[in-house]
Amino acid sequence: MSPNKAGGAIGAAVTLANVSKTYATREGLPVQALDAINLEMTPGSFVACVGPSGCGKSTMLSLLAGLIPSSEGEIRIDGEVVCKAHPKVGVVFQSDLLLYWRTVLGNVLLPLEIKKQRTEASHDQVLELLKQVGLEGFADKYPSELSGGMRQRVALSRALIQEPGLLLMDEPFAALDALTREKLIVDLEAMWLRLGNTVLFITHGIDEAVFLADRVVVMSPRPGKIVLDLKIEISRPRKWGSAHEDPLFLGYVRQIRKIFEAQGVL
Prior knowledge:
Elements: E1 14-24, E2 30-41, E3 46-50, H1 57-65, E4 72-77, E5 80-81, E6 89-92, H2 104-114, H3 122-132, H4 148-160, E7 166-170, H5 178-195, E8 198-203, H6 206-212, E9 215-219, E10 226-231, H7 240-243, H8 247-263
Parallel strand pairs: 3-8, 3-9, 6-7, 7-8
Antiparallel strand pairs: 1-2, 1-4, 4-5, 9-10
Helix pairs in contact: 2-3, 2-4, 6-8
């Protein structure tokens, strides 16, 4: 699998320069989702993005994935302009989007098959990855036999098997119960520390963002603009329970909440 951070991060360098996105309604009227986004992500960094519903968070993720074009500005991954689906990008969505007729093994192997990158070693790589995400022994199970948290672990594995330089996560834990969510948050940090991917994590959870990220980007209501780029200076690895008692952690959370209160979001 991917080298860990100690052995050299595989994370990609990401730049968004003056990126805007405007959609057209069915009546042909313009709706601006994003306005002049400027953001740099260093290789191996973990950036969380929080903002009110409809502020363009998921639009920004789709732009980075190369799924839609920007209206203005430029996006680069490792210096290469993004103009289509990028091979260095893996995506985890809020819904796991697993294929119910394929086993866990088959679902994780799918992107390698699509890209014609499956090799004799791929089977063992998937088994090792499933072990890392706590799904050892579940390779032959079908999605209907798994809990919601387990299905999200499969979705994460499906993204990670591609060894992406940039991992995009769009509210991946939003639909889970509180205990499962907390467990996956802690496990995600541990896995990121091992692998060293660059991560953009979209969430509505302020505590989730502060716990996971090196930086938290706070966005305004539509059209989405970055109103705060907050560096999180909390040592790693982090513990979910004790973090919520840490004055530094609580201070970051309050700082972000005050922005949303001023916007009338909270």
